[in-house]
Amino acid sequence: MICANCHTEFSGNYCPECGQSAKTCRFTVKNALLSTLEVWGMGNRSLPRTLFCLFTRPGQMIGDYLDGHRVPYFPPVKMLFVLCIFFAVVSSWRSGGETRGADAGDLIVEEVKNDSAFSSGRYAEVMSRPLFSVGNWHPTIRDLKGELESFFDWMEAHKAVELLSLHSFFMLMVWWLFRKSPVRPRSTLAENFYIQVYISGQLMALSVLWMLFFGNDRGDDIFYPLPPLLLLAVLVWDFRYLFGYGWRRTLWLTLLVHLLLLLLFITVVVAFVLSVAAMAGLLS
Length: 284
Fold this sequence. Notes:
mainly alpha
């Protein structure tokens, strides 16, 4: 037959030049509906089947995907974005449009503003002090605070990007700590990225189910609304069958991943605060 896209003559189900299916035909209500379902994971590479494997044998399923057995499974990054849409819909439905209260950062700022040391205009002076100058640009601490708030609001509104950023840090720690595992002793950073994306999709699917039954009592400023012990148990379960260590060693390495991430976060925050304070002249 002749390919409708590149006009190559071929035999088989797909064109060898451009990859277009031999079954390409005019649009009908039926194939338009099937194409739409394919976007949402209901086609041949079924999202429900992939999630079922992530719920029942996650370590083996992710290992199969890394080893090249990929056709039966839904692509991990696409799956995460689809699940984040479901998460947003369920979260909005369960919250009923309620507005959240002031978070801890807002409360701390209010405490600082009301402190006696800042009552005489010291707070306004510090917040308005330029950090540096680049041409006509003289950003202040207040400007920086506003930009950070806008950034975190944007990240919160784009859940999939937020989770990909979080699990990118997990990827580095897991790759380092599990690099000599019995099952995957030479896993690459790219492989660990896909491991983390699939785990994020697994946790996001569990979060959707959790909110459907129990709501979200932990607020919006979290990555997953699941209880911490459940999150830890899922990660240990995944890593146990993915990397092949025993339960005790897997638990220890998983806890070590979280500890290293906490230390990294504290180090970055302290370095950032000290840099801003130094630029504002508060350390002199």
